[in-house]
Design brief:
The chain has about 475 residues and is an alpha+beta fold. The protein is built from eleven helices and 21 strands. It has helices at about 5-20, 50-60, 65-80, 100-105, 110-130, 145, 165-175, 180-190, 205-220, 240-245, 300-310, and strands at about 85-90, 95, 135-140, 180, 235-240, 255-260, 265-270, 280, 290-295, 310-315, 330-340, 355, 365, 370, 370-375, 380-385, 395-405, 410-415, 430-440, 445-455, 460-470.
């Protein structure tokens, strides 16, 4: 007798073969749109194979229907996911595959990298404080950090502290104002009768976002309306992003918590949806001003924050245009980022005038470094990587000095950021530097650029070459 598992695989293969025989015929009606075998000059179209693949992908009959059917078959018969970015958990929970490393406790960021992140956040906080504002970093835990119990049994946690836990420990010892969302959300998940993250989506629901709102403003020391006495209604109205990836033709909706709040804020300018790069709100009953750099998790928190602040700006721009607080000061700057993207905090330097340094210590010429430059708006950005004889135990100060032909020198403090995208690389290394220098500080000429790296006990440096300012 055949084993039930073998029968399941056999039925699965038969159904897939039968399904594939149907949609191919749907391509016939689009035959006039097929990519040509030859170009207009009569030569053979070398890109035909790629163009045909794209054509089939665009015109494949019942594409979403069959993708959904395939997902259903694999989920029901084989208990596996047909979408590599989606993990089918227990009790109807879905998880995002890129969060697995964090869930397993893989330390994908080195100790030096985490120190770089704390160094960068400290620089941001200092810059905001110099312009009269308060800074808060808010790290949103992945869904499986808050709800690990619904992950499949074959994903076994190591018990080792991952990137988030290690960074939280460093932040606790630093001067950076930090909203402990992990503690607040895990405690709320344990106490709540219902979930505070969507079962079929990557993100928190309105209850989770409300907890995030409270925690951020508490960390900032801002008195606020907690909405503690409100009871939400549960509506099956949410289109889960993970559900859509796995079953694109499915009409199954997820639960959303709806609170009886009469919001009075309004959107300013051209607002389309919460995916907009920049969103501005005003509230006639609000107080103070907010600038929030956010990712997709910030969408659900916008209503609560917008109702509190008289003016609020939410930005998804990268690099973060922090320099806007020089012309439009704000009371609170929030940096919100999800756990799985923590490494980004040492990838791109926020865009603002680098802190000027009056005196740089004398350094021995014992290191090497690369130099890249580009003009970005009203700034000259300098960035590259540094090779030191020995990696310092703690994040060192990186000073960049520009010396003009007349001997005038200007020095600045740089972020510990490895601009991987601009360098055409995918890996974020720990030995980067990056800064933005206002073009108003410079005159059109050639500048010799030098680097100085100062640790608690050593000072080393090198010449980076010349950069021309137009």
């Amino acid at each position: 007798m055949k084993k039930p598992q073998n029968i399941a695989y056999f039925l699965y293969i038969v159904l897939i073969v039968a399904a594939c025989a149907v949609p191919g015929a749907m391509l016939v009606k689009h035959r006039t749109e097929l990519p040509p075998l030859r170009k207009e000059d009569g030569s053979f179209n070398k890109d035909w194979n790629t163009q045909f693949t794209e054509f089939v992908s665009d015109h494949f009959g019942f594409h979403d229907t069959f993708v959904t059917a395939n997902g259903d078959l694999q989920a029901e018969l084989l208990h596996t996911s047909a979408e590599e970015d989606v993990i089918i958990g227990r009790d109807g929970w879905l998880y995002y595959t890129p969060t697995v490393n964090d869930f397993l406790g893989d330390q994908t960021i080195s100790d030096a990298g985490l120190q770089n992140i704390v160094y960068n956040l400290t620089m941001m906080q200092d810059y905001v404080a110099q312009h009269g504002g308060t800074f808060v970093i808010a790290l949103v835990p992945n869904k499986n950090t808050v709800y690990p119990q619904y992950m499949p049994y074959n994903y076994r946690q190591s018990g080792i502290d991952g990137n988030l836990e290690r960074l939280q420990a460093l932040l606790a010892e630093s001067s950076v104002t930090y909203a402990d969302l992990t503690q607040a959300l895990t405690q709320a998940a344990a106490d709540s009768a219902g979930p505070i993250y969507h079962k079929q989506d990557t993100h928190w629901n309105n209850t989770g976002a409300l907890i995030g709102y409270r925690t951020i403003l508490e960390a900032a020391g801002v008195p606020h309306e907690a909405y503690a006495d409100l009871t939400p209604t549960v509506e099956m109205s949410w289109n889960g992003d993970l559900q859509g990836m796995l079953f694109p033709d499915s009409d199954v909706l997820d639960a959303q918590h709806v609170y009886p709040i009469d919001f009075t804020y309004t959107y300013q300018g051209h607002y389309r949806n919460t995916d907009d790069i920049s969103i501005r709100t005003v509230c006639p009953t609000g107080t103070g001003s907010l600038l929030m750099f956010r990712d997709s998790f910030g969408a659900a928190i916008i209503p609560y924050l917008s109702e509190h602040f008289q003016t609020a700006t939410y930005s998804r721009a990268r690099p973060e245009p922090l320099s806007q607080i020089e012309t439009a000061p704000v009371d609170l700057v929030v940096m919100e980022i999800v756990e799985r993207n923590i490494a980004w905090l040492q990838q791109e330097a926020p865009m603002h005038a680098a802190p000027a340094v009056e005196a740089v210590p004398q350094a021995e010429d014992t290191c090497t470094a690369s130099l890249f430059s580009e003009q970005n708006g009203s700034f000259l950005q300098l960035y590259g990587s540094i090779d030191l004889p020995e990696m310092p135990e703690n994040a060192a100060d990186h000073y960049i000095t520009l010396t003009g032909a007349d001997g005038t020198a200007r020095s600045y403090l740089a972020y510990h950021c490895y601009e991987a995208k601009k360098l055409g690389e995918t890996e974020i290394l720990d030995n980067g530097y990056s800064l933005y220098i206002p073009l108003t500080d410079l005159t059109p000429q050639s500048y010799e650029v030098t680097l100085t790296v100062q640790t608690e006990s050593t000072c080393t440096g090198c010449s980076l070459g010349a950069v021309n300012v137009q």
